[in-house]
Design brief:
Helix content is 68%, strand content 0%. It has 206 residues and is mostly helical. Helix 6 crosses helix 7, helix 6 packs parallel to helix 10 (151-171) and helix 9 crosses helix 10 (151-171).
């Protein structure tokens, strides 16, 4: 394998620094310095921080969304409604498969996405418009699985599930002896139980 290009060096350094410090905590100059390149290198290759972030997301997001689309297509083709666990598995499994590829690139990518999400720098509308047919299909399927839930509640609980999923995969403990498959199953147990929890009226007892 040849030496990484200047562009790849910049992407690798930016991915790590943004994941650690967020977009607001990293200057373009710092990325250039970390990559060992001239102060103008990043602007030459990408033009702006926003363009750099979009290229970083493009590294894995298209493949993740395509895998999720295939899983959701399989649920859509069935006559019976999906279960909450099945829909959440379609959300989770592509990320788990990315981690399973090894080499550390999947973990670095998920840490970047988790940081962008936590800091409010990853607009869900941008993701849906740029890579349609994935995340935007989850709410209707979850509504089929939980027909008594208001749509607003489904949106709320899905957002919480995504936050927990990303945090667990990016920064949670390493999978135990059972490996990623057991880790995925345990996470799905938790997410499904939380999503399907009964609704307590405001002011109701716990």
């Amino acid at each position: 394998m040849g030496r990484p290009s200047a562009r790849e060096k910049l992407l690798d350094c930016a991915e790590r620094l943004f994941a650690e410090h967020g977009l607001g905590g990293v200057s373009l100059r710092a990325i250039n310095a970390e990559a060992g390149l001239s102060p103008a290198a990043l602007h030459y290759h990408f033009g702006s921080q926003q363009a750099l972030v979009e290229v970083l997301l493009e590294r894995h997001m298209p493949a993740l969304m395509e895998r999720r689309r295939r899983l959701l297509d399989a649920l859509d083709r069935r006559a019976e409604p999906p279960t909450t666990r099945e829909v959440l598995a379609a959300l989770l499994r592509p990320q788990v498969e990315l981690l399973a590829e090894g080499g550390g690139h999947g973990l670095r990518y998920l840490r970047l996405v988790q940081r962008l999400q936590a800091d409010g720098d990853l607009d869900p509308r941008f993701v849906i418009e740029r890579w349609p047919g994935g995340v935007d299909r989850l709410v209707p399927l979850l509504n089929k699985a939980n027909p008594s839930f208001p749509v607003a509640l489904i949106h709320l609980r899905l957002g919480l599930a995504i936050d927990v999923m990303l945090r667990s995969l990016a920064h949670g403990p390493a999978p135990a002896a059972g490996g990623l498959e057991a880790h995925e199953s345990a996470l799905l147990d938790f997410l499904t139980g939380a999503f399907e929890a009964p609704v307590t009226p405001p002011g109701g007892s716990s």
